Amino acid sequence: MFFNKKIKKTLTEFLTELKSGNENVLQILGLNESSFRTVSYEQLLENPADIAAGVTGVKTKHNAKAFGIFDDILLKEHDNGDLKHIFYTTTRDYDKINDIAETIYSVLGTGYFDAELPSTFKDKKKLVNLTKGISVLIDDEIMNLWIIENITVLLQYKSQPMFEFSLFVTKTTEKNIDRTSRKSGNITDFLKTDLRTLFLEQEDSKTENIEEDGTITYVRYYYELNPSEFNVFNQLEIQQGGNEKDHTFQKGTNLTFTSSEKISLVDMVEVCEKLIKMYGPDNGGTEELEIYELDILENRVNWTGRSWGFNEVHGIYDVDNHNEQPSYSVWLNYDEYGFGFTLSIIGYNHLKEYFVAE
Predict the structure, then answer these.
(1) How far is residue 234 CA from its own chain's centroid?
(2) pLDDT tens across 232-248, in order?
């Protein structure tokens, strides 16, 4: 039997301690993890969204009444070491919701919000409508995000599930970054296309970025590739500054490889594994593909992927080290609203300058 212990800590006190550097959420609240019930592995498998997000363990605490409104608390452990504390309830009480939001604003400031979904808890009219069950979109919501060092705070009120009010407090785990020089070659070892010869040819199409004064700041040149790169990418975008081509690639050049055809999961994984084997852990210390990432790729939804940004000695670039200079970056991701599975080389000119033998 689990005995419920009343949470005496106010939201202001809780946030103030987080802001002061105390990252132990349960300790601040006066709770022990042993008072939570562990969800079985079988129950965890019943939630594919959690599996896809890399959740490896879930614990629950009911009738918590945190901060005077949240009935329940969830603890979610992720395979990357992150620990998510979710306070949630179902409510139509505008005053209580507004009080929680205004308290967070008063302690943490304005915070951040999604530019494509610009409804924050400052939008009182929308908040009133959502508490009345009135929404423009089926899955309408209001949300705000705050970041405190390794802690993120997210507040949201949703129409689906209806009247769900949640506070997410996530402690992120900083990984050790492998900054040793990469000595297993670079991405050009895989490329079959003679890019200089291709760039001398007439492009299939191009787009120009033109400023108000008529200046062309950069041009994107588009080519069809035959044969395809990595046996999947049959389209290439070459972006260069200015309005004239530099066939020697001595000025800023970015390459983006995409496909006009649907790429199979097997092929996507093969591309990933080739780059991971060559480059090792990426900017965030992430290396091998996780099971949940395979699910994301198979379902063709947004995947942040892998990114490697290098310095002049081919180690992962440290933005805080003023003795280092960035060279080039390789990005691999999936954009469900854009070009799908995408491979980008940012700063191809520096890749040639530093690491490609002429």
Answers:
(1) 26
(2) 999 999 999 999 999 99
What is the token pair recorded at 54? 């890399």
Q: Give the pLDDT of residue 115.
A: 47
What is the C-alpha to C-alpha distance for residues 28 and 186, in angstroms, rounded to an integer? Answer: 48
Distances (CA, A) of 115 to 87, 120, 144, 334: 25, 10, 11, 20
- Rounded Cα–Cα distance for residues 46 and 52 (Å): 12
Instruction: Give the chain's radius of gyration (CA, Å).
Output: 25
Share of the chain above pLDDT 90, in %: 65
Give the whole-angstrom CA distance, residue 351 versus residue 358.
Answer: 12
Once rounded to an integer, what is the mean pLDDT over residues 117-135? 86
Q: Per-residue pLDDT for 261 more than 80?
A: yes
What SS3 string covers the chain?
CCCCCCCCCCHHHHHHHHHHCCCCHHHHHCCCHHHCEECCHHHHHCCHHHHHCCEEEEEEECCCCECCCECEEEEEEECCCCEEEEEEEECCCHHHHHHHHHHHHHHHCCCECCCCCCCCCCCHHHHHHHHCCCCCCCCCEEEEEEEECCEEEEEEEECCCCCEEEEEEEECCCCCCCCCCCCCCCHHHCCCCCHHHHHHCCCCEEEEEECCCCCEEEEEEEEEEEEEECCCEEEEEEEEECCCCCCCCCCCEEEEEECCCCCCHHHHHHHHHHHHHHHCCCCCCCCCCCHHHHHHHHCCCCEEEEEEEEECCCCECCCCCCCCCEEEEEEEEEECCCCEEEEEEECHHHHHHHHCCC
Neighbours of 1 (CB within 10 A): 2
